[in-house]
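Protein folding task:
====================
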Amino acid sequence: MDDIKMDNTDISAELQKNLLIRLRRIEGQVKGIHKMVENQVCCNDVLVQIAAIRAAINKVGGLLIENYARNCMGIEKGSDQEEGLEQLISTLNTFIK
């Protein structure tokens, strides 16, 4: 699988594969919720599944933010800015969980 370009953001083949797997899983979860609503399943059960999808989508977004921060912001490894970048990535990942 070749690397793809998204808005000047380099995404490795490994990350692309990881994201696509996660997105397919989310797609399946959404279809499951659709069936739950059609079958008038208890609202609590539907909300639990919606929460799971929100967490999964946040993880996809977090992976993309981390990739952008590490590969597209022009901060070189070993620079003084790298430590701050690592702290920012950690904080963002904590926030979006």
Q: What stands out?
A: The longest strand covers residues 4-6.
